[in-house]
Amino acid sequence: MIHSGREGEPEGKATRGLHPRHRVDDYLRRGWWTAQTLDQTFRDQVAARGDATALVDPANRRALVGSDPRRVSWNELESEVTHLAARLLEHGIGRGDVIGVQLPNSIELVEVYLAAWSIGAIVSPLAMQYREHEVVTMANKANFAVMITTTEFGDRSPAADVLAARDRMPALRSVLTIGAAEEAADAGGSHIVPAPATERDRARIESRRAADPNEPNDCVTICWTSGTEGEPKGVRRTHFDWIAFSVATIDAPRVTVADILLNPFPMINMAAICGMLLPWLLTGATLVQHHPFDAATFFGQIATERVTYTIAPPALLWMLLHNDELLSKIDLSSLTRIGSGSAPLQPAMVRGWQERFGLGVINFFGSNEGVALLSSPEDFPDPDDRARYFPRYGASGVTWSSRFAGRVDVKLVDVETGVEITEAGRPGELRIAGPNVFPGYVDGENLTSPFDDEGYLKTGDIFEIAGDRNQFLRYVDRGKDLIIRGGMNIAPAELEGIIAEHPAVAEVAVVGDPDEVLGERVAAVVVLRPGAELALAELVSFLRERKIASFKLPERLEVRDLLPRNAVGKLLKRELRTRPTLTQ
Q1: End-to-end CA distance of the chain
Q2: Residues near 265 by Cβ (< 8 Å), separated by ≥ 6?
Q3: Can you give the pLDDT at residue 515?
Q4: Residue 571 pLDDT more than 80?
Q5: Which tens digits make up the pLDDT trace of 206-216?
Q6: Does the pLDDT at position 572 exceed 80?
Q7: Where residue 529 sits, what CATH number does that domain have?
């Protein structure tokens, strides 16, 4: 049985030994887990790659944070990581301490991950769009010991925002900023400038490592996921399961040391950490950072850096395919494959990229908790099949190319009866088990368990069996109300709770409207109190005063006399969504 937390220890408190002993022993015996840790992997790559280029900053870094972009070799990166790790120790950060990190994709963001892991600290990354509401919530749930952020991001100061709310985060001991010397500002915190390690720094870190080495079952990250329970949930992960998870994202695109990877997704959750950071770390490839998404900068980086592999949202790939004027101005000749996901792929889009450019689009379906279904050109040479289907791991008589296929168990379960589904065409909830599955949530003992009685992760996503040999899974629908806007997850329950506080609102339902570019946009459907009036601009202003992230703000407001419900009073959100407008 899969469960969370070290046996006999309260869930949410342990930072070592998150997976139970019997699971560790089983997966070590099978060879699915090893004694490998992420910090040792980094040191191994430094020894192997030396002066080869490791990391490249976003080309538009100066516009983001006020300093010029850099590029560093593996040796230079290791020296700066050691310097940073020593500074963290000076600020009292040690094993098991949680570091809240709000930084754009950059060299420094990767350095924070590596430096924290080298001293046994835990990284909890936050989206740059998050404001006081989200930062305070997550800091208090995970007990951030320190916050590392930037003095400048576009037209605002994330460091100043954190300092202004510091009295609402009682566990927070310090606020640090990191970046070039010219980024330092008097925001009341301490600024760290990346620099080569001194001999004293190196001796201190090596002594620390020898005296208190990491274990692969240690917690290394707490990422955040939104769900129907309203507030975000902290997803804990160890060296064990992150490394096992990345097998899928290395094998499907066949990432090698020769690749140049371009990461356009915020490095805060599965898509960028497992899709880009870990494949880079485990193969020794070159990683080019990009943030926030800007088409001109993105395509310029592909051409200038000779990028071989990247990931992109489906809407961007669909738009490009129908924009000959833009395509004529960009150079994609270095690309050999593209990953996409977070929304169902259109067969015409996947087929178009293969036929026009000879590029195979890899279909990704994943989650922070451990879902990883990947359809590669090797397993799905027909682009239409690759867009529609995912591998049904364990299907009789079928062999898949990825090592991941033999390590993961999947099943579909009837959501009403709980009976496992084995026939084609009958929708059921996807459940998954294996070495990639997370050990549990922060404060998990106070949350509904994400695992069933057999230890499978209950994903909440609805699939059905398909294919002439029942070898495929076809995505049917999202079993949860989660809204995904531009790759960012939004929990309707959280927004509904805040909107319900507006004096004009009697009832509210938040849903996602389909959108060609962003995937979905937020819509609020309300029933007003007698005699009350409410306009969208007024509602948005009310929410801004609550200091929530701007990507959560509704873009449609609909006023109704009643919200639709079934015979037992359950809200029928499907009747509130606008119809899809995507071109087929």
Answers
A1: 44
A2: 271, 272, 275, 276, 311, 487
A3: 84
A4: no
A5: 999 999 999 99
A6: no
A7: 3.30.300.30
Q: Answer with the one of 413, 445, 478 that is the final residue of a domain.
A: 478
Tell me the two tokens of residue 67: 């300093």
| pLDDT tens readout for residues 504-514 | 998 888 999 88
Give me the percent of the chain exceeding a pLDDT of 70.
92
Domain of residue 159 covers: 32-214
Record the tokens describing residue 352, joined without a space. 């178009």
Closest CA to 274 of 438, 405, 72: 438
Nearest to 269 by CA among 147, 105, 444: 105
**Structural domain contains residue 429:** yes
Residue type, 58: P
Quick one: pLDDT band at residue 183, thresholds 50, 70, 90? confident
318-357: b (≥16 Cβ within 10 Å) or e: bebbeeeeeeeebebeebebbbbbbbbbbbbbbbbbbeeb
Give me the sheet containing 286-289, strands edge to edge. Answer: 71-73, 53-56, 286-289, 260-263, 309-311, 337-341, 360-366, 372-375
What six digits make up the tokens of 454?
């057999």
Q: Are residues 391 and 506 in the same domain?
A: no
Q: Is residue 242 part of a domain?
A: no
| DSSP secondary structure letter of residue 275 | I
- Rama region for 487: left / alpha / beta (φ>0; ψ in -120 to 50; rest): left
Q: Give dist(CA 335, CA 356) in Å, integer.
A: 13
Rounded to whole angstroms, how far apart are CA atoms 356 and 366? 28
Contact 370, 432 (CB under 8 A): yes
Q: Using CA atoms in the order 432, 436, 438, 439, what is the torsion angle rounded to 10 degrees?
A: 100
pLDDT digits (tens, 9 = 90+) for 28-86: 999 999 999 999 999 999 999 999 999 999 999 999 999 999 999 999 999 999 999 99
Amino acid at 86: A
